[in-house]
Specification:
The protein folds into 2 domains: 78 residues, no CATH class; 102 residues, Orthogonal Bundle (Endonuclease III, domain 1), CATH 1.10.340.30. It contains 14 helices and no strands. Helix 4 packs across helix 11 and helix 12 packs across helix 14. The radius of gyration is 19 Å and the shape is elongated. The two termini are 20 Å apart.
Length: 222
Amino acid sequence: MTSFQEIYAAAAERNGGEAALKAKLPKVKSDRALKGIADDRYLSFMSLRVFSAGLKHSMVRDKWPAFEEVFHGFEPHRVRSMPDEALEVLMGEKRIIRHWGKIKSVRANAASMCDIIDEAGSMGAWLTAWKPEQTVELWDQLSKRFTQLGGNSGPYFLRMVGKDTFNLTPYVLDAMKSWGLYDGSGKGKGQRAKVQAVFDDLRAECKLPLCQISMTLAQSVD
């Protein structure tokens, strides 16, 4: 198996040096910091990810203050209680993105988050219970328990809130193939388990967070 040291050196060279590479590496939050994030912020980030999928992210962010207003600050229990009529009214709200499926997903995800709060105490506490070697299992649970968090949306949500995760972007998959680490689509439980094993091995070698390993891979090849 190719050593991470070799991959890191190639990524640093492509970026003009180690300092430039380090500046591109994402940061992760500690478990304490993740537990300190309010549940309404987790629902806001989750909804932001859902509405950003397939759209220009800056455009969605510009509209987000209006989303915060119409969805009651994304307080999960209040959003869960929104009746159908209140959601239907939002289809006429020009300040937000009027996509019926995504609008409905906010209430559905608020309900799922309330269930998790009842189970674990908070969304942050639930997230911190998942260890790095359980990353693809966490993706699977996000996809099962929440609406429109399948594919890469779950990992992107985790990256947004600061929970450590790798991302299987085309760049990362291409790099893994180029370095002889893995050659596949990364889709399906069996394939994702193989990818998890590769990242576990790389993390054991370099002691870096998964997100930084992932970004280093993406930066290591053309």
